[in-house]
Amino acid sequence: MMDGHGLAEVAGAIGIFTFITTVITVIIIQVGATVRARAALAREDEYRRLAESGVETQQGIERQLTEAGQRLAAMEERMSSLEKILQTVE
Predict the structure, then answer these.
(1) Which residues cross the membrane (predicted)?
(2) DSSP state, 1?
(3) What pTM value is reported for the model?
């Protein structure tokens, strides 16, 4: 039979086991949260780089479109003057 001292030892062992299990569980949860936070930061950084790249591409396209518009306007002027010359010749 167990006396008071034996029961105290069993209760102490259960308490220590419970404490160690709790500490390990908390450590695992915190490590998981840290890993998820780092992954989120990496993902956000990649999205930021992607957005910057998209903006740069869009600005390049806008410049090309402006140049194309200017060239088209110059061609329209030339065509107009060519039409006037041709009408004068007829």
Answers:
(1) 12-33
(2) -
(3) 0.56
